[in-house]
Amino acid sequence: MKSLDHFVHMVRDLETARQTWSRLGFHVRPAARHIEFGSSNAVVIFERTYNELLWLEHCTAPALVDPYMPRLTAGEGLAHVSLTADSLAAERQRLEGLGHAVGVEGNARRAVTMPDGRDDETDSSFLYNWQPARPFNSLFFSEHRKPDQIFIPGYVDHANGARDVTRLVWLSADPGSDLGYFRDSWGQEPESVGEDGFVFRGARGDLSEVLTSHAVRARYGALAGAADPGTVGGYPVAMHFRVSDPDATRGFLAGAGVEVADLEHGIGVAAADACGAVLVFEPLSA
Fold first, then answer.
1. Which long-range contacts (CB under 8 A, 24 or more apart) does 173-176 make?
2. Helix, strand or coil for residue 167?
3. β-bridge partners, 42
């Protein structure tokens, strides 16, 4: 079984995004450059996942830049979600056997400074398999040969109490048409399918949920803005985090001047206050 791995979060200015997420109580790593491509990112590391604030201004690979630009034109926010993979070669063979035209593969190496001050370098490769009809409701795969240089214990403590991402939610103009693609990508059956969308459960219990505009607005209200799939047909709209003390999280955000809203299972921060992604903080038992 696969699990959520990391999230490509498109931003227009990396330093501004770093400041925004730092204000929200996240430990945001300094900007780093992808050695192979020239793009820059700043990562927010959790126990088993990470959010990648990505800036493409100096990227030298058009095959990587061009597919993302319609998402950035529509606004900052989540654009691409990676699943775990033990072998990209095996994933390519599996997906091509299912009839997919699997695309770009590359190495996303970047320099990293470890908590003890030692310089090191990540060694992670990715495999893209864009869904043509709704490209930002696509999944890709990551193979980390040096996971200890990514999921670094010294960097996973966040002032807002977030420990990991437990749920990733997409908005879709037509969840029913996304289902086959997600089924092939996950390599398993969904946990549930309904008129509002569907849910896959990963190996760690993490949830991936694709919902209609109506369902997104019903769940998040004004936090999600217009919740309109627009010309891109859909995109990832929300991240849910587990926290051990929701009251402490609420207190931190209030002290930082961040408005929150009470939701069914936790407290939420508006997409407008988090570079285009709704953030939800839930207790461990949710």
1. 173/134, 173/213, 173/229, 173/233, 173/234, 174/134, 174/233, 175/210, 175/211, 175/212
2. strand
3. 53
pLDDT band for position 62 (50/70/90)? confident
Token pair, residue 53, equals 């604030």
Residues 55, 6: Cα–Cα separation, whole Å? 16
- Provide the residue type at 219 as one letter: R
Flag whether the pTM goes above 0.85. yes
Cα–Cα distance list, 190 to 49, 83, 87, 104, 133 (Å): 21, 15, 22, 26, 20
Which of the 8 DSSP states describes residue 285?
Answer: T
How far, in Å, CA of 11 to CA of 239, rounded?
A: 16
Q: Tell me how crowded residue 186 is: count the other CB atoms within 10 A of its CB.
A: 18
All domains of the chain in start order, with CATH: 4-155 (3.10.180.10), 162-283 (3.10.180.10)
pLDDT at position 77: 96
* CA–CA gap between residue 257 and residue 269 (Å, rounded): 11
- Predicted pLDDT at 4: 98
Biggest alpha carbon distance in the chain? 53
Cβ(220)–Cβ(214) below 8 Å: no
What sign for the dihedral angle of Cα 208, 15, 23, 29?
Answer: positive
DSSP notation for 81-127:
EEEE-S-HHHHHHHHHHTT-----EEE--BEEE-TTS-EEE--EEEE
Beta-ladder partners of 82: 6, 140
Dihedral of the CA atoms 120, 125, 130, 136 (nearest 10)? -20
Kindly tell me if the per-residue pLDDT of 35 is higher than 70: no
